[in-house]
Specification:
581 residues; alpha/beta; 23 helices; 13 strands; 9% strand
C-alpha cells in the first residue's frame, strides 16, 4: 500500500539529495499555514486597525502558530494587560477558543521613546523566540508634529531593525509603509526612491530645535522634499532606513494605498475608526458632506484592509522561503553592514516591495464610486440623517466654494441658531469645520492619481497554491466594487454607528420623506430668490412670462388645462403676489 508524505517532508528530502536550489523551489510549494506552524510572531501596532485584522487572520488561518507577541503601549489609566483583555473581548475575537487567545502575549513598549521603550528582559525574549516580525505601527495623522512623526515612523524603524539583527532565528521582517511614500513620482515602481534629504541630518537638527521652531520650518521641509504632509515624508524616511540599515536581513516592504473596511474577514465591512475614506463615506451617508472638488474621471485607490493583511502574511512566507538558499549564520547579522553608494543604489531596486493598489488592475473612477455609494445609501440608509445623501463632484474650485456655502454652511448656521434658541449647544458649524479640514488634508490623494508598478505583487499572487489564493486573497482583480460599497456602508452602520440592521424598511421610508422635504426646501429657496429678481429686473420678468407660457402650452397639449384652475394662476404676474420675505 503506497505511503503518503506531506509537502514539507518531500521538501526536506529534495534538499538532502539535490541541494539548496532545489530546496528553494520545493519549499515555495509549502502552504502558508504549514509555514507558520510552530512559529513565533511579533507585531508592532497590534491594537490598531490593521494589527487586529492581522491577529485574527493568523489565529484563524494559521492556528498552528506558536505565539504572538504584541507590542503595546501603557496608557495612563490602562495597563497593557487590560488593553489586551479589552481587545480580545471585542466582537471580532468572540469566535475564538480560549486556547488560541492564550497565544497572545502583550509586550510593553512606546514608539515615541528612544529604543521604543523595551527593557532588556523583553529584548532578550524577542531575540530568543521570534522568527517572524511584522512592523505595522505608525502614527497615521497626516498633520502630526514633525518630531513625533519622525520618531514613530522613522526612528522606530531603525530600532526594529536593530532588534531584528539580534534575533537568533529570524525568518522574515515585514515593514508596512504606504503606496504614497514617493508621491512626488508620477510612476511609482517597486523600488525605494531617494527622498532628496538626509534623515540623519534631520534627526540631528530635531534634537536641538524647539517644537515651535520645528513647526515654523515644517512647511519648508515638506516643500523641499515635495511631500504633502509629515506622515508621507517620515514614511519615506522609514524606507530609507530599511535600505541603508537593513542589509543582511530577510526583509520586505508592503505598501498599501488608502485602506478601507474589510472585504470578507474577520467580518464583512468591519472597521473601527473614521480615518481616511471611512470618515468621508460616513459624512456623505449622514448628509453632512454634499460636494467634492475633483474630476469624476480621477481614479481612487482604496484597498480593503483584509487584502493588506493577507499580502503581509504572504510576503512574510515568500521572504522566508526565498532566503533559505542564501541564509547565513545569524551572527553575521548582528552588526550594521557598511554599504557603499553603489550598494545602496542596488538595494533600492532589489529589496522586495509589494505595491498594494487597485488602480492598475481594477480601476475605480470617482464618479463610479460616488454612484455606487449612492446605491448603497439608498439600500442601507443610516439613522438620524441630516439630509438626503447626494454627493456632487464639482471640478471648479470656486463653484465648489459657492456650493459649500449655500448647501453646507448656511444650513449648518441655521441649524445651530435653532439649537441655541431651544437652549442646546451648537454643533453643526463645528462639524462642518472639522469635516472640511479633513477634506483639505485628503484632497491631495483624492485629486491626484499615480501609476504604480504591481509586477511583484501579481507574481506573489501567482506563487500561492490554489488553496492559499482563496484563503489569503489579496488580488485586487477579485474585488466587486458595488458589493464592497454595500459592505462598507453596512459595516459603518453596524460597527461604528452601532445602529440596528433590522430597521431598514422604516429608514428607507424616512429617507424618502427627507428626500421630498429637501426638494421642497430647494423649491422654496428658488422661489424666494426668483421673487427678489423678478421684482427688480425686466429680463427676469420676460423669462418668467416665457416659462409660464410654455407651461400652459404643455398642459393644453395633454388636455389637462381644462380640468385644472392653474391657467388663471399662472397668468398672474409673480411680482404681484402679496407675500413678504
Amino acid at each position: 500500500m503506497p505511503r503518503h508524505y506531506s509537502q514539507s517532508t518531500v521538501a526536506v528530502w529534495i534538499f538532502l539529495f539535490l541541494g539548496d536550489k532545489s530546496c528553494r523551489m520545493a519549499t515555495l510549494e509549502m502552504s502558508i499555514s504549514e509555514f507558520f506552524n510552530d512559529k513565533t510572531v511579533a507585531i508592532t501596532g497590534g491594537t490598531g486597525f490593521i494589527g487586529q485584522c492581522l491577529i485574527v487572520k493568523l489565529l484563524k488561518s494559521c492556528p498552528g502558530v506558536k505565539k504572538i507577541y504584541l507590542f503595546m503601549r501603557n496608557k495612563k489609566s490602562t495597563s497593557i494587560e487590560e488593553r489586551l483583555e479589552k481587545m480580545i473581548n471585542s466582537q471580532i475575537f468572540k469566535t475564538f477558543d480560549q486556547s488560541l487567545l492564550q497565544k497572545l502575549v502583550a509586550i510593553p513598549c512606546d514608539l515615541e521613546k528612544e529604543g521604543i521603550g523595551l527593557d532588556e528582559g523583553n529584548v532578550r525574549l524577542i531575540q530568543d523566540e521570534v522568527q517572524i516580525f511584522f512592523h505595522s505601527a505608525a502614527t497615521v495623522k497626516f498633520n502630526e508634529h514633525l518630531r513625533t512623526a519622525f520618531q514613530v515612523n522613522t526612528l522606530a524603524v531603525r530600532t526594529v531593525i536593530g532588534l531584528c539583527r539580534g534575533i537568533k532565528n529570524l525568518k522574515a521582517l515585514v515593514h508596512v509603509s504606504t503606496a504614497y511614500s514617493h508621491c512626488n513620482q508620477q510612476h511609482i515602481g517597486e523600488e525605494v526612491y531617494e527622498t532628496g534629504q538626509d534623515y540623519n541630518k534631520l534627526h540631528e537638527s530635531l534634537q536641538w530645535m524647539s517644537d515651535d521652531m520645528i513647526t515654523k520650518l515644517t512647511p519648508d521641509i515638506l516643500k523641499d522634499s515635495s511631500r504633502p504632509n509629515t506622515y508621507i515624508l517620515t514614511k519615506a524616511f522609514g524606507e530609507e532606513v530599511v535600505v541603508n540599515e537593513g542589509a543582511g536581513l530577510p526583509l520586505c516592504i508592503v505598501r498599501p494605498s488608502i485602506i478601507g473596511s474589510t472585504y470578507q474577514e474577520p467580518s464583512q465591512g468591519w472597521c473601527d475608526n473614521v480615518n481616511g475614506c471611512t470618515g468621508v463615506i460616513l459624512a456623505t451617508g449622514k448628509g453632512l458632506l454634499c460636494s467634492l472638488w475633483c474630476s469624476g474621471k480621477t481614479k481612487q485607490d482604496i484597498i480593503p484592509s483584509d487584502f493588506v493583511v493577507n499580502a503581509m502574511i504572504a510576503a512574510a512566507w515568500k521572504t522566508a522561503l526565498s532566503n533559505l538558499q542564501s541564509q547565513t549564520p545569524s551572527s553575521s547579522n548582528n552588526q550594521l553592514i557598511p554599504l557603499s553608494n553603489h550598494d545602496i543604489m542596488e538595494r533600492r531596486k532589489t529589496i522586495p516591495i509589494y505595491n498594494l493598489v487597485v488602480g492598475k488592475t481594477n480601476p475605480l473612477p470617482l464618479k463610479n464610486l460616488v454612484s455606487m455609494l449612492h446605491n448603497s445609501y439608498m439600500a442601507y440608509p443610516f439613522d438620524n440623517l441630516i439630509r438626503h445623501p447626494n454627493l456632487k463632484i464639482i471640478p471648479n474650485k470656486h463653484f465648489r466654494k459657492l456650493f459649500t456655502f449655500v448647501y453646507e454652511y448656511l444650513p449648518a448656521y441655521v441649524f445651530d441658531r435653532g439649537l441655541v434658541m431651544v437652549g442646546r449647544k451648537p454643533m453643526a458649524m463645528r462639524l462642518n469645520h472639522r469635516l472640511n479640514e479633513s477634506l483639505r488634508v485628503l484632497h491631495f490623494f483624492i485629486y491626484n492619481q499615480w501609476d504604480w508598478d504591481v509586477t511583484k505583487t501579481l507574481e506573489l499572487v501567482s506563487q500561492l497554491n490554489s488553496s492559499d489564493q482563496q484563503s489569503f486573497n489579496f488580488d485586487a482583480r477579485s474585488i466587486h466594487w458595488q458589493t464592497y460599497c454595500d459592505r462598507f456602508v453596512i459595516g459603518i452602520k453596524q460597527y461604528l454607528l452601532k445602529e440596528d440592521l433590522d430597521g431598514y424598511p422604516a429608514q428607507r421610508r424616512r429617507l424618502q420623506r427627507i428626500r421630498l422635504f429637501g426638494y421642497f426646501g430647494q423649491a422654496v429657496t428658488f422661489l424666494v430668490v426668483w421673487r427678489l429678481l423678478v421684482s427688480r429686473t425686466t429680463i427676469a420678468r420676460n423669462i418668467w412670462h416665457l416659462v409660464m407660457s410654455q407651461g400652459i402650452k404643455f398642459f393644453q397639449y395633454f388636455q389637462i388645462s381644462s380640468s385644472l384652475p392653474i391657467r388663471n394662476i399662472l397668468k398672474v404676474p409673480m411680482w404681484t403676489i402679496p407675500f413678504k420675505l
